[in-house]
Amino acid sequence: MADQWSRWGLDLHLQSQAGRGLRAGIEYALREAVRSGRLPAGTRLPSSRTLAGDLGVARGTVTQALEQLVAEGYLESRPRSGIRVAPQPAAPPPTITPPPQATLPPLRGVDLRSGFPDLAAFPRRAWLAATRHVMQTAPNTALGYRDRAGAAELRHALAEYLGRARGVVTTPDHIVICAGYAHALRLVSQMFGHRGAIAFEDPAEPGYPRLAVHLGHEARRIPVDRDGLLVEALSDEAAAVVTPAHQYPLGVTLSPARRVELVSWARRTGGFIVEDDYDGEFRYDRQPVGALQGMAPDRVVYAGTTSKTIAPGLRLAWLVLPGSLLTPLWEATRWEESCVNVIDQLVLAHLIENGELDRHVRRCRTRYRRRRDLLGQAVTRRLPQARLSGVAAGLHAVLRLPGTAAQERALLDRLAARDIHVEGISSFYHRPEESPLALLIGYATPADHAYGNALSALVEELAIVVA
Ligand SMILES: Cc1ncc(COP(=O)(O)O)c(C=O)c1O
Question: Which of 49, 195, 266, 355 could form a disulfide with 299 if both were Cys (CB 3.0 to 4.6 A apart)?
Fold first, then answer.
């Protein structure tokens, strides 16, 4: 039976049922239409003659099928009113699983969770002006299908910006625009996971090793100490994912000796380094530590994002690849579409070229440095038993408290009961029970006007707890 559209009143698409007899096919198609709700209760069916004509089958075949469905309770036949769809027992409501949240949505009260820049500082005026510029100047061809690597304009602007601001050595054709670091990591995991295990720091953002495992790859965890990744614990992994500028979450910087060691590991074993430079623009006390990529552009896959400099909602990030990985990346990810809206890419390119991104980052750096200093002063004054670390860079610091990881849940609950939201560090460890008792303080998260009160609320509550 071919797919058919009946001509009666409302159209009904009866899916062809390969392998079933004509009658069984009609029964099945009507049954499914009733079950799925496409034919609601009370719907009047056409006469068997019309239906047979529409379907191109003998009338007797249709009659038998309809009688069968009446017998099964899907249809009802009433004198002088023809055949209608019978009322069906209510189907259980579909279970809707909400999409998993990578990071939690904004909360009421004191929000000092890590991972956010100050969203109130979004450069709205500059973004609007750049959007206007793009809409006035971009040729129509810019709005068509573009290179999967991303808009050439943005890749050119980034090559210059990353070289200047982060010491990245590259050219536009080595850059791939991604929908956030999470997307970038998915692409590189797809490429490396087929070559061997992928190493992640321990502690690390737990979603990242889980993503590799979800993609069917082996994720290994490598400890981090005060000098960063313990390189000697690496072996034959295909890639090691690191956060050298400001380890997430501990906040330490990969020491010069470890950088050399890590690059030697990559050269010796043929492994690659994935450098997650998520907050590399924010360094407060001295010159930013340049990207590791500058030391070994042939062994490092560099990843950057706008999630800390501008806003995570933009979903705008980039990979800088060694030349030898360009073809493998496209081969491993050939079913991936380009995921970033071209207008946003052109807007960001314009903001980089006209210096607005630099100005915005400088303003934010000044603001976050002041907040970090206030945090340090408050801890010194009110929490002498605590120790603040990871403060040289980034948007969060680690507040180590006396006690053990077993006390973390109760502490977080107590703070949450007072509408103070921070994260504990234990969930970032592969073995949470071995974690110290420490909180991540995302001092960039509140709006500027709210920061002072947020900080006092946190510190005063902790002073009671640790007293
Ligand atoms: C370690 C780390 N890297 C990168 C990012 C940025 O991720 P995305 O660009 O997907 O927002 C985050 C976000 O919180 C992070 O914690």
Answer: 266
pTM above 0.70, yes or no: yes
Tens-place pLDDT, residues 107-117: 678 999 999 99
The CATH number of whichever domain residue 278 belongs to comes to 3.40.640.10
* Domain of 145, in residue numbers: 123-355
Query: Closest Cα to atom 6, ligand 1: which residue?
Result: 181
- Residue 389 inside a domain? The answer is yes
Q: Are residues 322 and 434 in the same domain?
A: no
Give the model confidence (pLDDT) of 298-334 as tens digits.
999 999 999 999 999 999 999 999 999 999 999 988 8
Q: Are residues 34 and 74 in the same domain?
A: yes
Atom 4 (ligand 1): residue with closest C-alpha? Answer: 278
Task: Taking the CA atoms of 109, 115, 119 and 120 in sequence, report the sign of the dihedral they define.
Answer: positive
* Binding pocket residue ranges, ligand 1, CB within 6 Å: 115, 180-182, 205, 243, 248, 276, 278, 305, 307, 312, 317
Instruction: Report the separation in Å between the CA atom of 154 and the middle of ligand 1, taken as the mean of its atom positions.
Output: 20
Which residue has the CA at smallest separation from atom 13 of ligand 1?
115
For the stretch 407-442, what's the b/e string if a residue is b when 16 or more beta carbons lie within 10 angstroms of its beta carbon?
ebeebbeebeeeebbbbbbbebbbebeebbbbbbbb
- Residue 179: CB atoms within 10 Å: 18
Nearest CA to ligand 1 atom 3: 278
Question: Does 91 fall in a domain?
Answer: no
CA dist 107 and 89 (Å) reads 41
